[in-house]
Specification:
single chain, mainly beta, Ubiquitin Ligase Nedd4, Chain: W, elongated
């Protein structure tokens, strides 16, 4: 996955605050 399905911006892999797994997270929304 390279782009957000919501806004089309790039995504990066990181661990969200409320999670313990690596996820694709949108850099814009």
């Amino acid at each position: 996955m390279k782009y957000c399905s919501g806004c089309g911006s790039t995504v990066s892999q990181r661990i969200p605050e409320d999670d313990d797994r690596l996820r694709y997270v949108c850099d814009q929304c």
